[in-house]
Amino acid sequence: MPVTLPIEVYEIFEKGFGKESAKTVIKSLEQVIDTQVEDKWYRTKTELKEELLKDVATKADLEVLKRDLEVLKKDLEARIAELIGKQERDKAELLGTIQQNKAELYGVLNETKAELLGIIQQNKTELYGVLNETKAELYGVINETKAELLGKLDRLNLTLKYLIVLMVLALTLMNPVVAEILKSLLKL
Q1: What are 102-117's pLDDT values in tens digits?
Q2: Is the torsion defined by CA of 165, 166, 168, 169 positive or negative?
Q3: Which residues lie below 8 Å from residue 37, measured CB to CB, with a gap of 6+?
Q4: How far apart are CA 58 and CA 64, in angstroms?
Q5: To which H or E segment does residue 128 belong?
Q6: Of the given ranges (24-33, 109-118, 141-150), which has the lowest mean pLDDT?
C-alpha cells in the first residue's frame, strides 16, 4: 500500500526546491517511507508468526505426542490389568479366609451348643430330682395332714353325734309329754 504525503508537505518543498525538485524529493520520500513501512510490516509479521508458532505444535510434535500417548495408554492398560488381577487374587484370598473363619466359627458354635445342651440337660435332671423330692415330700405332708384331719373329723363327727343324741334326749326329757309317757312306762 503506497504512502502519500500530505499536500502541505509538497507545498513546503515546492517553495524551497521548486516544482520539479519538490516532486522528485516527495516521490523519493514516499518510496523510502513505503519501503520502510513494508519492511517494518514484514518484520512484525514474521515476529508475530514466530511468536505464535512457539506455542503451536507442529505435525512432528503431534506425532511424538501421539506415540507418547499410545505408550502411556499401553502402560495404563497393563497397570489396570495388573490391578484387576491383584483384585481378583485378593478377592479369592478373602473369600477363602471368610470360608475358613465361617467353618471355624461353626465348629466353635457347635461345641458351645453341645456344651450348653449338656449343662441344660444336667440342670434339667437335677431340677427334676429336686422337683420329685419336693413333690414326694409335699405328698407325704399332704397325706399326713389329711390323715390327721380325717381323724379329727371322725372324732368331731362322733362328738357331734353324741351331742345330738344328748340334745335330743335332753329335749325329750324336758318335754312334759315325754315326761308323762316316761312316768307311765316307768310307773312312777
Answers
A1: 999 999 999 999 999 9
A2: positive
A3: 3
A4: 10
A5: helix 59-174
A6: 24-33
